[in-house]
Amino acid sequence: MTGTLVLVRHGQSDWNLxxxxxxxxxxxxxxxxxxxxxxxxxxxxxxxxxxxxxxTSVLTRAQKTCNIILExxxxxxxxxxxxxxxxxxxxxxxxxLNKDDARAKWGEEQVHIWRRSYDIPPPGGESxxxxxxxxxxxxxxxxxxxxxxxxxxxxxxxxxxxxxxxMVLDKLTKEQILNVNLATGVPMVYKLNxxxxxASKEVLGDMxxxx
Length: 211
Hints:
39% helix, EC 5.4.2.11, Rossmann fold, PG/BPGM_mutase_AS, gluconeogenesis, 6 strands, phosphoglycerate mutase activity
């Protein structure tokens, strides 16, 4: 019997609220972000899952989301592994800039390409493909073996690091993944087959509340 993989994007951060490119910068959650993490945790508690281990990035917003979820499922103090392989995509020279200011500087079309193309990175930063190039090996060596042993694994990370995983799990093309946005604080519950393919996927929570 294989295990369960739960992916959760962190709740809203201060810089999400301020419309800033964040990347590897380290702002905290907003009050709304804390509420979103709590909602995700309550959804998982209602689902009845107990985790064997958690993984998160080295960034505060993901770690805090992870901790809030574990509080809600009654597993404060669960072993949690932090690794920068799960960090958000590095936005390079865009990091810290207001998205509207970036559009004024480089043009709407260019900024859209950097944000939404699969393999064109912003100056000094990472594309989604670059992000996947560090997320996928980490997933294959550190996370997937545990799931295949039957463990229940929580991964609390970021929009783009998780999108690169979802792309592989859901067998999406590089064109299809561009239209995928992950809601903040909404758990995605994957059950895997013995060959590591997806047996089922369930999204917990109201997707209409996504933003």
